[in-house]
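Q: Here's a chain of 315 amino acids. Please give me its 3D structure as tokens.
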Amino acid sequence: MQQEMSLLTVSHSLTSQSRRAELYQPFEVRCHKPSGRTGELSNHDFERVIRLLAQNPLYGIHLRSLIEDYGLVHAAHRGRFFGYYEDNQLAGVVLLGHAFLLFAELGAEDDALGQFARIAADTWTEGHVIYGPRQQVETFWRHLEQHGFQTRLTRNHRLYVCHSPHSRPDRFQLQPATPAELEVVSNAQAEMVIEESGTDPRLKDPEGFRCRVTERILRERTWVKIVDGKVIFKAELVSDTPDVIYLEGIWTHWQYRHSSLTQDCLVELVYRLFMNRQVLSLLAEAIEDSDIRVYEQAGFVYREDYQARFLKPLS
């Protein structure tokens, strides 16, 4: 499972099946005559940004969670937020920084993404990755490459959704990690990153890595199973909003990967989250057949394609 990309999102009940289908339609780009303007966002824009992102809880989860956790201006974002306006109404939002995260209303995508690409070039933003629905990412990339940005690596993902728990767990074995378990959780997270990228985050950015792990624990967003002082399963609820939960970093200790532990823990996690929410989704790399089978056995079905496009450093 990918380092920071395997996602699980959970949406609250919508007022009707038709309304839910409307909010969670697969991404599509609709071109129109350019007419908008852009501007940097501040904390004074909080309410209007949240209203815009709430139009599609699934696609707005990453941006909304960051904003609700920290506001629109904070060092944790490792970047800056910009808005796109049509007729003085906010129609798009982007985070330009370490990650490029985008959101735009239907009908405004092409112009908004083009404007956001221009801002990224004008501000000389050293982005690391663009992530989102595949068609959105590829549309944004067509604008971005015109400004001299280059792709280092592209990884394709699949979005899976689940509308109800597949089964009730035989037993409950997960618990939120506590600050006293920081070291063993950090070691498990680092081991996962090393397996996937070959890089030890404790060496590359020890302070930042430890702070991120600590913060998720303090927010009670890290779920673990610990045996004999060792994490053997973990999952991270990196984002949590009133509408959606986004989970990543599903990981099982190598000694337990040939057992039913991963599936048992995932079934339990899904069951617990469905106590308050209705629609779950997660992203998996297209090549991870064994992981996908576990997800399908827990009740997930394929929905649409996503993409992570990693960028070369600006020269």
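Q: Can you summarize the key feature?
A: The first helix runs from residue 17 to 23.
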